[in-house]
Design a protein that fits this description.
Layout: H1 2-36, E1 43-55, E2 61-66, E3 73-74, E4 79-84, H2 86-111, H3 115-147, H4 153-182, H5 186-210, E5 214-216, E6 221-226, E7 233-234, E8 241-256, E9 268-273, E10 279-290, E11 310-317, E12 329-333
Antiparallel strand pairs: 1-8, 1-12, 2-4, 2-7, 3-6, 4-5, 6-8, 8-11, 9-10, 9-12, 10-11
């Protein structure tokens, strides 16, 4: 019995010493932490960004082929994409034919009316009538199919445009035939010359649209996003892809106006990029702007405090950093007060 009591007292003492030892260890760790551990640095979080150039053209048509892929680096003038349009190519052929016809009629007016010239004008007129009739039938069929939801509105519109162009061509051919029949007056000669100029202008206009069959890079950069797929239709001015300019990158973050005393346009600051192994990047501030009333901090006390606004800061890297990509997080250390 005596031995059991002694053993119990021994266990109680061991437990007490274990608790005391644990408390002592925790106390020592707390003291070490108090003297040696630094408080966390106060950072402002922002992000990297870059200028994005939208690549688009005047030519409505089908994406024939891409010569680049997303992520590719390109130089100014590199060919990016080919767009084809059978409709515009047909309009060019039609405009060139009208220009040739107008030139022939102008030559006839200057040389005087001949029987052969009259016959040629008549033949052109009859050809224009035949073409008008064919395009009218095509348009009527397309309209019927469109009303039945068999074809798209674009196909119907293309047929309508072809029909209207053939009507205009038929009217022009008829006018030329009337001119040949009645004989060329001084005013007729002037009119024929004007038609030549107008037809040449139409050819030039269509050619300017076809110049955008191949779109090229306007500057050095990296292909960010390609919107359509090969084979898809694109409209006039539709963005085909987005190009990020290599030489135009910046970092941006927002600060309370109480920190503006330590920030100024033209000042160099240091930001940290966690994604690049916390690399420090030197940047020069070029933009400071109030973000508006919606970003204001309102005072909660009637006295002793005041409203303060939020300002956006933008800074460009002093040296080019090719690995800095739009969307990367950047950290700016708050200045110590």
């Amino acid at each position: 019995m005596e031995n059991s009591k002694d053993e119990l007292r021994k266990n109680e003492k061991s437990l007490v010493w274990a608790v005391v030892s644990l408390v002592a260890v925790l106390l020592v760790l707390a003291i070490i932490g108090f003297f040696f551990m630094k408080p966390p640095t106060d950072y402002i979080e922002g992000q990297a960004d870059a200028t994005a150039v939208k690549i688009s053209g005047k030519l409505p048509g089908r994406v024939q082929k891409f010569f680049v892929s997303e992520g590719d680096s390109v130089r100014a003038g590199d060919t990016l994409v080919q767009i084809t349009s059978s409709t515009v190519e047909a309009k060019l052929a039609q405009a060139q034919a009208m220009r040739n016809a107008a030139a022939a009629q102008n030559q006839k007016a200057n040389a005087g009316t001949r029987s052969q010239t009259k016959q040629a004008a008549y033949d052109l007129w009859q050809q224009a009538i035949a073409k008008r009739d064919i395009t009218k039938k095509t348009f009527d069929r397309m309209q019927s199919l469109f009303e039945q939801d068999v074809i798209s509105a674009q196909k119907r519109d293309e047929a309508e445009a072809a029909y209207k162009a053939s009507v205009a061509a038929e009217n022009a051919a008829k006018s030329q035939y009337d001119l040949a029949t009645e004989g060329a007056q001084r005013e007729d000669k002037a009119s024929a010359a004007a038609m030549v100029s107008a037809a040449a202008g139409t050819v030039k206009e269509v050619k300017s649209i076809l110049e955008d069959e191949y779109l090229v890079a306007p500057c050095d950069g990296r292909i960010d996003v390609i919107y359509p797929n090969e084979g898809e239709l694109v409209a006039t001015g539709s963005p085909i892809m987005s190009l990020l300019k290599d030489e135009d990158k910046w970092v941006t973050f927002n600060v309370n106006e109480s920190l503006l005393s330590s920030l100024a346009i033209g000042q160099e600051i240091t930001v940290i990029v966690p994604a690049l192994d916390s690399k420090e990047v030197k940047a020069k501030i070029y933009y400071i702007r109030d973000m508006g009333d919606y970003a204001s901090w309102r005072a909660t006390k009637a006295t002793g405090e005041w409203d303060s606004r939020t300002f956006q800061i933008k800074a460009r890297p002093v040296a080019q950093e090719s690995r800095l990509l739009p969307g990367m997080t950047i950290l700016y250390k708050k200045p110590e007060k």
